[in-house]
Amino acid sequence: MADSPLAGFVVVDLSTGIAGGYCTKLLSDGGAEVIKVETPEGDPVRRWSASGASIAPGEDGALFSFLAGGKRSVVADPAEAGDVALVNDLLASADAVVWSPGSPLADDPTLLPAALHAAHPHLIVAAITAFGLDGPWSGRPATEFTLQAWSGGIVGLGRGAPDRAPVYVGGQVGDYLSGSYASAAILASRMRVLGGAGGELIDLSMLESHVMGLTYYPVTYFEMLGRPWRDARKLTVPGIARVKDGLVDVGCGTAQQWFDLCAMTGHEDWIDEGAPLTITEQANEKSGELYAWMAERTGDEVRDLATAFRIPNAPVASPDTVESLEHFAARGSFVTHPAGFRQPAAPYRIAGVELRPPSLAPRLGEHTDRYRNAPRSPRHAGTAADRLPLSGIRVVDLTTFWAGPSCTHLMALLGAEVIHVESTRRFDGTRMIAGVPVTEGQWWEKQPIFAALNTTKKDVTLDLGTERGRELLHRLIATADVVAENFTPRVLDHLGLDYSAVQQIRPDVVMLRMPGFGLDGPWRDNPAFAYVIEAAAGISWLTGYPDRNPYEPYSLGDPNAGLHALNAVLLALEHRRRTGQGALVEAAMVDAALSIAAEQVIEYSAYGAVLERAGNRGPIASPQNLYRTAEIDEFGRDDSWVAIAVASDAQWQALCDALGNPAWAADPELATETGRRARADVIDEHLSAWCRERSSDEIVGTLWHAGVPVAKVMQPHRQPELEQLTAREFFEVLGHPVNPSARFTTMPFRLSRGPRPVHRSPAPLLGQHNRELLAELGLSADDIASLEAAGVIGTVPALG
User: Fold this and answer.
1) Which of 473, 479, 676, 788 is the Cys-Cys partner for 622 at CB 3.0 to 4.6 Å?
2) CA 173 to CA 154: how far, in whole Å?
3) Can you tell me the distance from the alpha carbon of 374 to that of 626, in angstroms, rounded to the nearest whole number?
4) Burial class (CB within 10 angstroms; exposed 0-12, middle 13-18, buried 19+) of 266
5) Residue 77's closest CA among 116, 42, 126, 51?
6) Can you tell me the distance from the alpha carbon of 271 to that of 359, in angstroms, rounded to the nearest whole number?
7) Where is 511: in which H helix or E strand?
8) Quick one: DSSP state of residue 396?
9) In a 10 Å sphere around its CB, with 0-12 CB exposed, 13-18 middle and 19+ buried, how is residue 735 labelled?
10) Which of these, 353, 475, 340, 377, lies nearest to 419 by C-alpha position?
11) How many other C-beta atoms are found inside a 10 Å radius of the C-beta of residue 658?
12) Keywords for this entry (predicted)?
């Protein structure tokens, strides 16, 4: 892979599990040489199947083959001094190491992250842990399930119906998010190293990754507006609904989409622009009639109408149907792995850049002798003064809502100069979605989602409907390293700003395009919000109860897309550094979603298994469920819960001991996972009774200190109450010229070389930097005044 962006970049993988495996897969796909160092027993993922499929001794499971394709395997026994020395020799000549706890090798004192950072100052050391390397919760047990509970992601945006327990997002999405964040952090840190700096320690918290991916800035929202986003679980209507021939997802993310849905179903009489109810409340009132209307039609009929009305929609994919969907077939969204199963193609496409195709995974220890005997050239740490990783990169940011801005926001926090382009007629959609009335002064500056997604950016307003506005945008692009947008493809086509046009302005530009469904295929022009992306990719399929329609996660599709887009842009910038050539990056939201739902199609094509939603049960732990506590919640409801997940036989014994070894738990069949799964209902009955008599604090205090993964099911706006997040300074307080001070999330990883603080300025006011940026382009004060008078620029929305 000599033409790949990461050719020559050597990564030692000391991790086990999906998060580290996915991180190093993304790096390997970019051309890095990844040396997976394992104990003689191998990574447990080699023997993993979510469906419980039998994997023959000496064979590898399909998921491992997906994650480890193209990597090298070296076996090292931590009990052998020579093997530990071999690992240190590999590290001395590597560029980065990815570490996670839990294996005898990774837990060797000389191979802990701080020790690695001290012994090899040139190395980028990325540590992936449940809660971070320090803080009061460091080292405590956790699973995907309990991390979702602690993050607020189980309650999320009010997902699910109030007559049952809230439900987690199915699959292992947090592991993939954490792996994606770790990869992006490594690539960003590498830019700092290429600038002459030494290595650093990246401390990634999976809890914080869950916060970023499964909740929607709830703390900033609560502190700015004095109310939570949702105070109860409500079904999104119509959301995922049954039609004559299956399930479809039709959603209303804006008031206009609700009005269009009313018109589409023949109910213009429901349209009330002055209604005191939110669109969610209005839709819930009409749910019976909407569901009845949809049940009388086929999926194609409903989706064709919704598309005509510009309402987000998608089929609800399942493991056995997702490949057959017309859009994915047309785009070649799935490919065959050399081991014979099917998998998603790469989560992004970079024109002119070679990404590694699906490749065989190494056999355990296949390359040990090669690396034991190979000559090595030790790396040396740079001595240049620290600068922010993306310092010197200018981004023209045409993105809106969540997916695109989340990508450019991370770039800003990592040091890029990000110029957010809006207009007074078409400003960022997040300036309107929080329900601040337009009768309130400067309402457009008081929207918490915009405030949270755009800190440290600059803002310019240009009316791109005018020739002068377009001409100024062209001049701004000429100064940019990256141009980012996330409209449907037809919008930029209409503006004449496709890649070839932008390349004429700046030949070496990296252009990031983030359409929901991609730049081609039959769905290319369909509007795409998170929920329809999640449905189309199969994430929704695993979320909810088996006897009901799936629930929409309603959050994951956007930040996951932004995160994968960031990885792609960093690869493209490295390609430019090496070759002097720019690149078109196509980071479709749905491709990123397919990648983190890969296990579904892999299990189906490898083993014929259709993974199913199971409420709050799952394949990682048994028992695993939510249990109601004795408390009344802050809204006056009997709706307080804890999450418990027993992921090993040792944790089961710890649970029994913590409960006082009750007679019911002495059944010898419960000593094994197989036995516990067979009697899950019985276990749940007893655990429910025990929890119902206790507070969440008492339950957590009893079980967690005994070594059992457990968590409160947090309301997301209560995240600052978690002492771990406070200890790690995950939130920073920012002032604002219009709004009161509030807390803002930072990033789910800490870089030992900074930035600290992470936020350098609050979100910009509309058009705040017009004069600064236009003067930089050579415009005089009179020129700028003329533009204001003509409405080409401005600082106040032009409504109507």
Assistant:
1) 676
2) 12
3) 52
4) exposed
5) 42
6) 54
7) strand 510-513
8) E
9) exposed
10) 475
11) 18
12) Transferase
Bond from prior residue into 737 cis (ω within 30 degrees of 0)? no
> How do strand 200-205 and strand 749-751 relate by DSSP bridges?
antiparallel
Distance separating alpha carbons of residues 344 and 390, to the nearest angstrom = 30
Mean pLDDT for the stretch of residues 706-726 = 98
Asked if 72 contacts 371 with a C-beta cutoff of 8 angstroms, the reply is yes
Beta strand residue intervals within 562-670, DSSP E = 583-586, 624-628, 641-645
SS (H, E, C) 695-733: CHHHHHHHHHCCCCCEEECCCHHHHHHCHHHHHCCCEEE
- Tell me yes or no: is domain 622-708 CATH 3.30.1540.10: yes
Q: Residue 716 half-sphere exposure, CB side, CA atoms within 13 Å?
A: 32
The distance between the two most distant Cα atoms of the chain, rounded to a whole number of Å, is 85
Tallying the residues shown for the chain, one arrives at 800
Q: What is residue 381's three-state secondary structure?
A: coil
Strands 239-243 and 246-250: antiparallel
Q: Which residues contact 625 (CB under 8 A, 6 or more apart)?
A: 615, 616, 617, 643, 644, 680, 684, 687
pLDDT band at 63 (very low <50, low <70, confident <90, very high): very high
Q: Among 656, 530, 541, 503, which residue's Cα sits nearest to residue 589? A: 530
Residue 549 DSSP SS3: coil
Torsion region of 27: left, alpha or beta (phi above 0 gives left; psi -120 to 50 gives alpha): alpha
pLDDT in tens, 671-694: 999 999 999 999 999 999 999 999
- Report how far residue 587's alpha carbon sits from residue 518's, in angstroms, rounded to the nearest whole number: 7
DSSP 8-state class, residue 550: P
Angle between helical axes of 598-607 and 589-596 (0-180°, round to 10): 50
Q: Residue with structure tokens 């409500």?
A: 234
Contacts of 429 (CB under 8 A, 6+ apart): 254, 400, 401
Per-residue CA distances from 510 to 180, 476, 477, 497, 502 (Å): 20, 14, 11, 13, 9
Pair of tokens at residue 194: 């290429």
C-alpha angle 633-615-638 in degrees, rounded to nearest 5: 15
> What integer best gives the mean pLDDT of the chain?
95
Helix (H/G/I), strand (E/B), else coil: 644: strand
Residue 38, both tokens: 């394992």
pLDDT of residue 702: 98
Asked whether the beta carbons of 237 and 283 are under 8 A apart, the reply is: yes
Residues 423-450: what's their mean pLDDT?
Answer: 92
Kindly state the tokens that stand for 246.
């299956």
Distance CA 106, CA 82 (A): 16
> Would you give the DSSP letter of residue 800?
-
Find tokens 């002068």 and name the residue. Answer: 468
Confidence band (pLDDT; 50, 70, 90) for 237? Answer: confident
How far is it, in rounded angstroms, from Cα 350 to Cα 26? 14
